Target: HAD-IA family hydrolase
Amino acid sequence: MGKSFVWFDLGYTLVYQQREEVYRQFVQEQGADVPLSDVERAYHLTDKLFMREYPGALGKEAQTFFPWYLGVVNYRLGFHFDLHRQCGRMREIQGLSQRKWLSFPYTSTVLERLKKHAVGVGLISNWDATARHVLEDNGLIGYFDHIVISSEVGSEKPGKEIFLCALRAADVSPEDCLYVGDNYYDDVVGSSRVGMDAVLINRFGRFGIEELAHEPTIASIEAVPDIVNR
Model:
């Protein structure tokens, strides 16, 4: 593909939460159980539903969408819990973790590979004021040549302005850039509006995105260096 600059999304592209383990612990506390793999797939499908049907909802404060989101996860797994109590208890369980967001095991390795091949690395993310803290806490911030956060620049994906802001900051043309993210409607559609090519992350192959035909679609960012150097 021969790109000289790669822009990344943040959540579920570079970092993740241990939300499925938290959910499973809650279920076990209620005297039930469910395989972790089933929880992972239920969360994945719920993510894709919200991305497709309720654009922007996942980027807002948790109290505005989380009970609704959790109700969908419960429904997919056949559970019917008191959502107020469930949300509160799951927040308590998650609060025991030192960090809310963790980098994927391969994230730093991928970023290092790109830097070693003189590929520019940037971040374009819909995120609140904690974005840079997430990067710092995971030892990632030093890899980025440019960081563009919606809460800092006053515009959000999939709007064009946040991508144009990134292009201006890096002084690169869209034809030289690749965007990588897990939300087709924010990441692929948004970046294409300014002429960038995009790679879609979907952990489970075509599962949950059957309505889409975008290529390339990959399981994780581990494939990105090879795509860039084709």
Summary: Residues 42 and 73 are 6 Å apart (CA to CA). The longest helix spans residues 36-53. The beta strands are 5-8, 15-16, 102-103, 120-125, 146-149, 177-181, 197-201, 217-218.
